[in-house]
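note to self: dont lose this again. the chain is below, predicted strucutre after it. 624 aa total, dont forget to put it in the shared folder this time
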Amino acid sequence: MFGAGVQCVSLQTTGEPVRRCPNEGDGHTHVRGRVHGPGTYHLSLQLETKHAGGGLYQGGVLVATATSRSDGHPVPITCRWKRRLGAHLIEIPGINNSMYHTSVDDIGADVVCVAEPVDDPSQGQSVGVLGPFMLDPISKMNLEKMLPSENHFFIVQHYLEEDDPDPRDLRIHITQDYVKVVHPGANGGSREAVAPYSADYPKVVIDPLDPNKFRLELSEETDNIYHFAALCHQPRDDIALLIRCFHARKYVTTSFILSHLFQNPATPGAPLTNVQPDGFDIHALGERLGKELDRTVGQLEVVEKVVKNATNEKGELQAQLRETISSYTEAIEQLHDQLADARGGPAASLQLQLHEARAQQNSLQLDMQEVRHNIEQEQQRAPKTSEPSAECAAQVESLRGEISQLQTSISALPGDRAMNSQRDLTRQEELRRLRADVDMLNSEKEGLKRCSVQADKDKQDLIENFLYVKGCLDKLQMVSLQMPAASPEHDREVARLKETYSQVVDEQNRLAIRVETMDRDREKQKQQHESALERVMNANAQLLGERDRLEKEKARVSELCQSTMGAMGVVPGAGGTGTNAAGGNSTASLGALTAELAQKQQFLRKREQEGESLRARLRKLAMV
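---
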């Protein structure tokens, strides 16, 4: 059924022109496509674009709607979107709604919409087609401006997941040799992911649902697959077009070139391929390759300038390194001189001389290694600098003279470019490493300066302490010389005082032991008193509860007595035998209640006395 629908569409495509309907209300131009389907409902496929001319340019929105032919009500539909390239239909995955944002993937292709009703699929499928789409003038102008230059930078938002609420800003660096994603880090550092152009990577996958999102695959590894979102659809289209153009320029299929130059090896004996003048122009190809050769030579000159600058900068860094080493050596020598002055002796001076000789030997070894390294670099670079000019001249002559040498020149140029790029990256890494070493050495120099200042302060403190102790010792010696000789009575008095002092110390120790013992006893008594106080408080709480219960019982007995007395006052006094009997029974019950009341009151007074005694004990314990 789908095949039949496509055939019908192709027939209508040839016979019915595309209709453009300008809409002045919203500023959009609606371009309607060609549809074919069953007679139960009508499918409409239109492109909403902001271009004034209303052409079929990428960046617009395709909208598919369906209405019933009987009453004109809208019919809900599900759509499958496809691209038609020649005779092939390619499914667009991940989209089944009625809107589709066209992108650079649709350039040169027709977009086919296969729709069917949601509620009743038995009504059949309708097919709409619109195309082919072209590159819009703004993107074309941007692409023509960007292709001649070498470096391009784009700021995009990186999503770790599809629903990441906090995207991170990254930078995409696109050149003619590689694509690089730069991760900005703390303190000005950054992490980079580089992918040179290969047969399959880097690859840009456009999101069919969101006009700003896309996926950049640098390799088949999961860590090198990034989900990005541009600020709008224009930067996304520029990124995709630029990467694809550089990739196509880098990797042109060999079969395409051989089919225009030689016989097809798959069909031996067949005549040579006829090349139309507009399909393959040898002069245009030679001119283009000459321009590429000139651009490559210019790149080689730029690389040589960069290498020269890096060499000069490396020499300056090495001079700074030698200066730092010499300053460190001087600082260490000063410290050793100070230590030798403080300690004295020939051994210290010999060790200082030995250390100085070792430092000189290390500096001479560094100089010798640097000279050897420079000589090796010059020897390795000398033949390579002379080859490009001869090779370039040979390539220019071969391009002008013989077509058979085109494959060799094309394969040689990317190799030299990759080698120069690799050499440039290596020297940049070495320059970065040398800068890090210089920063580390500067920090170590500052640390050594601080240590030297602290050592001077410590040395000054030691000298002052030494002078103070020496003065005290001199005073003590003078006092000992001026004092008269000690008499035997004085010695005996001193011995007696020492003995008395020892006795006092022993007594103090005994008193301290007794105090500790008393403290422990008091602590135990305190714990016992606290436990007893807790028990008394519990008993007091029980007594208070008992008192409340007795108060309630007393109130109940009082109410019962009052009710009884009231009942007795209501009954008349001039009654018969029955009345006297009732009065006797009431008197007996009243006596029993009165006796019970007196007993309860006595028990209550007893409980109150016990409570008072407990309160007195609590007060005594609190005073203790």
